[in-house]
Amino acid sequence: MGTEAGPGSRVKIHFTLSLEDGTEALSTLNEEPLECVLGDGTLRPGMEMALYGMRAGEEDRVTLTPEQGWGEHDPQLIHNLPRSRFPANMALEPGQIIAFDSAGGEEMAGAILSLDEQRVEVDFNHPLAGRNVVFWVKLLEVE
């Protein structure tokens, strides 16, 4: 019958993440499958829960709430930064994603919401925060 996936299982999966309107946010289908250990933090909690009890060869589609996925959209993660913090020759436009170094030295992505000559409004929320996300997964291997 094969091994069921559960906490601590090493799995190999193909998956897609889509918005409810069908817009695809991420997919491994044209890439190498993802390999990870359930519980190591690679997958969001709701994604892991969907895999529990599955066996190699099975697939599933679940809708994750913000709590199961990337959390609620946090207005405190929207910051107005001085335009002078960006290189003068850097073209900036709404919707653009830029990598920033956090105070702790980690890299984080921010999406430009709006800008003028003095300031740039940047949203540091994950792009999928506050949204229901459709998670399709095919379990290829379980150890």
Protein described:
The protein has one helix at about 45-50; strands at about 10-20, 25, 35, 60-65, 80, 95-100, 105-115, 120-125, 135-140. The protein is mostly beta strands and about 140 residues long. It has 2 domains: about 10-70 and about 130-140, Chitinase A, domain 3 (Roll), CATH 3.10.50; about 75-125, Thrombin, subunit H (Beta Barrel), CATH 2.40.10. The strands form 2 sheets. Strands 1, 2, 3, 4 and 9 form a 5-stranded antiparallel beta sheet that branches. Strands 5-8-7-6 form a 4-stranded antiparallel beta sheet, with no helix packed on it. The longest helix is centred in the middle third of the chain and has 7 residues, at about 45-50.
Major beta sheet summary: 5 strands, antiparallel
List low-pLDDT spans. Answer: none
Overall helicity:
under 10%
State the end-to-end CA separation: 13 Å
Which radius of gyration do the C-alpha atoms yield?
A: 18 Å
For the record, the CATH architecture of the largest domain stands as: Roll
Quote the beta fraction.
35-45%
What's the CATH C level of the largest domain? Alpha Beta
